[in-house]
């Protein structure tokens, strides 16, 4: 695989839009391979948020003056963008939250009245803690029973085991689209179809998918799909809950107060309609506007050519790690997305990460908020290198050279 095959002028133009990537760390150019934790932000996102604060700063939906009108228009325009981006049927199916974690908590809390003791909740064994703990809390409130969906020996979701668990008629099935720890891609449309055939409510965590894949809620057909802005080149502090209108409209609100009401008296309160009913309080206005800019960026730059480039680059990363020797890869497949999980021999992942950082290489080390998955792999943790739309072959080569020096030092 040649440099020219991987490093196209178009990708170079994309990278130039990210100011943070131009910096030096201790004399080394920054090599950012931690996009799965949070992506960097292009200039268009920074400019959109600065424009709001400099010129349109006002609360939304609540005032008659021009600043509020402009802020409200910009805020609600992003809901329309997301409807198109996700191919949702209605704009009211888009709820703004503060991130994937809040989105899942909102759903888990909102379903409380719909569960009874003994109801089964199935959870993907590779799930992020944010797609485990809220369901455990729901089970505590209702007496429901949590059952993990096992993985097979290749760290893929075990379809046969999944179908056997579906025979229990679960009330809820919680899946991840792409594993944040391993990069494994689930066939979510198939998994959702099987779950719905048994009458289950389905939620898909798309936090690791949204920056890499073209999404279509009609094709996936899940009841809920959740993700965060900061993993798709947008700001921190904003996320999205997509829900099919009928199931979304039956959720009890997690937060109550201003904005989400229709009428309040000291005798009773009548909640408003969607989407306001699930968006209590002042929303993250600047962050939503920044998210809109990130969507524009992705719709412009995440072409089929760039998606193919990312896949080729990840495969190159896997091959180079194999070739280095003394490196253990976990769940490494040609169809993985964005992430490679590895350890260097028996060395502690944190030691490896610190030594890489001293050479300007940023990777993630730890359990990756997936402790049940780490336990199933008999690991206390691992290193994770993750790529984004701005990653170059040069980044991979620098990382491999740095890891080789760490190997020489430690082994």
TrEMBL record:
- Domain of life, per the record? Bacteria
Q: Which PROSITE patterns match?
A: AA_TRANSFER_CLASS_5
Q: Which residues form the Aminotransferase class V domain?
A: 32-399
Under Gene3D superfamilies, the record lists: Aspartate Aminotransferase, domain 1, Type I PLP-dependent aspartate aminotransferase-like (Major domain)
What is known about what this protein does?
Catalyzes the removal of elemental sulfur and selenium atoms from L-cysteine, L-cystine, L-selenocysteine, and L-selenocystine to produce L-alanine.
Keywords annotated in UniProt: Pyridoxal phosphate, Transferase
| Name under which the protein is recorded | Cysteine desulfurase
Keyword Chloroplast in record = no
Asked if Transferase is a keyword of the record, the answer is yes
Species in which this protein is naturally found: Shewanella morhuae
**What InterPro entries does UniProt report for this protein, alphabetically?**
Aminotrans_V_dom, Aminotrans_V_PyrdxlP_BS, Cys_dSase_SufS, PyrdxlP-dep_Trfase, PyrdxlP-dep_Trfase_major, PyrdxlP-dep_Trfase_small
Q: What class of enzyme is it?
A: transferase
Protein family: Belongs to the class-V pyridoxal-phosphate-dependent aminotransferase family. Csd subfamily.
